[in-house]
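Re: [ENG-882] Designed sequences occasionally contain unexpected residues at chain ends

Forwarding the minimal case from QA. Structure tokens:
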């Protein structure tokens, strides 16, 4: 009588169906929230905030820290809002140039990946 090889199917943890479903749900939720906050970038209120930020801090903060004088092009949240509308409006802003802004965003994405879920 043939015996079937035992297959290891963890009930939870990485690799299990439940885990994958949970990850997908988490991803969906974050995407929805991020989408909602993304719309705020088109509002007059944000445009005023951004203009104000560039007025009070016309130079890139990160370049300035390295002794480089560089015109800021972007208003960035010092503490990432991570899709939180409340944080979007209340978190402190900093002026950054494109290059610095991109490097900040990349670091944020990496830290989100490494930590699993955002804090
Ligand atoms: Zn810069």
């Amino acid at each position: 009588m043939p015996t079937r090889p035992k297959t290891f199917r963890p009930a939870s943890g990485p690799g299990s169906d439940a885990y994958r479903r949970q990850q997908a749900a988490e991803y969906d939720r974050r995407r929805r929230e991020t989408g909602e906050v993304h719309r705020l970038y088109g509002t007059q209120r944000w445009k005023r905030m951004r203009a104000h930020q560039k007025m009070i801090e016309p130079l890139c903060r990160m370049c300035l820290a390295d002794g480089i004088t560089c015109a800021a092009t972007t208003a960035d949240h010092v503490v990432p809002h991570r899709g939180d509308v409340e944080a979007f409006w209340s978190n402190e802003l900093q002026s950054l140039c494109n290059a610095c802004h991109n490097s900040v965003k990349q670091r944020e994405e990496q830290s989100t990946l490494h930590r699993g879920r955002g804090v």
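QA comment: On inspection the terminal residues look reasonable. The longest helix spans residues 17-40. Proposing we downgrade this to a documentation issue.
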